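Risk register update: the risk of archive-format incompatibility is retired. Evidence:
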Amino acid sequence: MPSGIEATRQALDDFRKIQEYMLSAKKENATETYAKLKKEYHTLKALLNVSGVNLTEIDEIKE
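Archived output:
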């Protein structure tokens, strides 16, 4: 079982990747893909907020 720091680090890495994919999907007008990624984005954002991570600087999507 990963420690809290390891889990937060993994969530941050996943959050960054999801944002990249969302920006790409938006640019390509892939609305179905964007909607699926948005669900994962919200889940990761909630997890990071509960973990006390300030997303102000790293949240490129801001939804």
